[in-house]
User: Fold this.
Amino acid sequence: MKKIITLLIVFAISLSPILPVYAEDGKVTYDGNSQQFIFEPGSKHSLTDLFSNFKNVMPGDTLTQKITVKNNADNKIKVKIYIRSLGAHGDSVEFLSQLCLRVQKSKDNEMAYMFDAAANETSQLTDWVYLGTLYSGGEVNLDVTLDVPVELPNEYQNKIGYLDWEFKVEEFPVEDGDPIAPQTGNNLYIVLWSALIICSLAMLIIYLVWRKKDKENKDNAVRC
Assistant:
């Protein structure tokens, strides 16, 4: 039986003469235990703000923000993840209409455009767009590019634009015959430790058998 969970996020774009600070990538992690999304890094503008690289932008800037969407559910659960845009907040429409936003998804080592329009629009993200089916530890990467025109008027200085995106997840149980889920680093360590323990047990058994045979040989020699 599938479960559907949706959550709204907000990211903010600010225009300021202050030099930008280069920050970490955005992360959207689905936590299966709490059945909710966790958004990082957040900002003073919004706790769900993913776009730390889109702050203090200047006319003529072309900025890119990487976003990793990851499934952190139990390995018995696979999820289908979707995204859609609800557009700009009412007081942000005019400002964001001056900027161009592009969203690309990595697929088979190639980048496919999911969105390419003015930042205030919903365009190709008006309806739910499927990002992928992710097993435990699986992830999909998005590259978001923001183009700020050189001729952007001074009236937008210190302006902040708010744009709403929404994520949705459908939970499904992993079934027999499903593709093998991608191995995470932790799973790899478990496999290595398991192999080491098995080898150690095998060596211990061989050693005990050898000692037993050696003792039997010595006992036989004494009896002779």
